[in-house]
Amino acid sequence: MDVQAYKAIVNFIWGIADDCLRNVYVRGKYRDVILPMTVIRRLDTVLEGSKEEVLKTKKMLDGAGITYQMEALCGIAGQSFCNWSPFRLKDLANRANQHKLREDFTAYLDGFSPNVQEILKKFKFHVQVDTMADADILGAVIEKFVSPTVNLSPHPVLDDLGGVRLPALDNHTMGIVFEELIRRFSEENNEEAGEHFTPRDVIELMADLVFMPIADQIKDSTYSCYDGACGTGGMLTVSQDRLLDLAERCGKTVSINLFGQEINPETYAITRADMLLKGEGAENIAYGSTLSDDRFPSRQFDFMLSNPPYGKSWKNEADRLGGKKGILDRRFVTSFAEEGNFSMIPRVSDGQLMFLLNNVSKMKEQTELGSRIAEVHNGSSLFTGDAGQGESNARRYMIERDLVEAIIALPNNMFYNTGIGTFIWLLSNRKDARRRGKIQLIDATTLKSPLRKNLGQKNCWLTPELREQVVRLYLDFEENEHSKIFPNSAFGYWKVTVPRPKYGESAEANPCTCPQGERTGSPLRDKKGNLIPDKELTDTEQIPLDYPGGIDTFIEAEVLPYAPDAWVDEGKTQIGYEISFTKHFYKPVELRELSEIVADIRALEAETEGLLEEVLGK
Description:
The protein is α/β, with parallel strands linked by helices. The chain has 21 helices and 18 strands.
């Protein structure tokens, strides 16, 4: 479907809200009707062609006294769902009696199979039916959705001569329609930055980064793909398309099972409906919080792609897990670095790293391919948290296990509801030999193409050519202005506590009067003879793990010349990790030549010559 046809569908559906709901719903509630009705109409169009046969079969089964009919009716419908009510949606469009319309529309909804009923329940749509019926707008809404001027069917609408009057709406484009509607509703409601959908150009880049490096390793097999924050399922469907396309080009026959979990009931319902329509195993889409109620605790996956919420509190999940200090979930508290309970739990204001850790816990360890992960995060995951804190420990866990292949900085304003900087993390537990022990940083912030019209805050996109350029930077694994390669240790440091002793009370003990921090006077000791540290003079040093000679050499060279009485409190030394793109890709502004500056000054003097005398003369 071309862009104009797709936009026409979105605009038509968007217009229904203004035409029918304006005086009954506040704008923030339009989505409560429009989204489920869009789902219902899509399901309805898929079932229209088989409706008569389904009803005939139902009549036969009723006559035979068969109570369990779903499997047979779905078989006749050719789908994993069906509707055995006597109505199609367009049959209800001309009901004049509102009471009869409410009754028949309710019967129509109740005629859907249980897997669709669960979707409608998550939308809480029966409440909206009552609201619309009471306000006498239910009929108008139905008439709009069955209008002959718009096609929500996977089949084209033909004219009298057999030509295509309205193009078919394939499942992929239907998913984009849903996302565009949700984006517009979110923009209307001023939803916070973390609650946004991933643009398709970013998803396609992530899919390429996950699959392209292993294209020649694809076999005739079944693979699995998982998204623990699946939203409307865009990551999963694009990933499926990419893998199938690669397999076809390589002459391989593959299938891919899609798994996802989503906490928002509305977007969960849309994903579930999408999977029903595709026959992709809707039962593999779970509802609930991935952090506090992991619905796939024992499963491992070949590929994992996700855009988890960032800058968003996960306090409710923390409480359900036993409180932040009481969490024992092995995805987030594990045995590592000689610690039995190595905690990687971040502050409750931002849980995005926990989604990445959840994926790491689901990596396959016994297969040749292992697992590959791509996740979008904001900059917080790179540097928030001091040594020993949850965020730093999470980075340490992934880096010291040599799982991080690359991190890619995307351009600003790539997302619909936020302009902040974002980064793609790429992880693998089957690194190529050339990547082992190393991390590649790619600065793609300047690789963007402007949009002719902003979509929310999104003012640029990644064209296919730009996506190919980013993927090439990754695959080439070479250093240039956009790509830097570092050993894992380059991102680690020791946080060292450096005390200085407390001295006896005397004028000579004042460190400010002594050169280079030296003292006259005696340092104080406790009963065991240990020096008593002066809390006001205690300092910390951040020493790179790759500092030549390590801690002792650093202290000798950088501390003792200025504080000869200092020492290292070894019991408090901790290891931290942070990643700074600014440090590695910063380009200082080039200073102008002095001759240029002088020339400009002289030009200004010439322009203003005589002006001062003229002003003073007056």
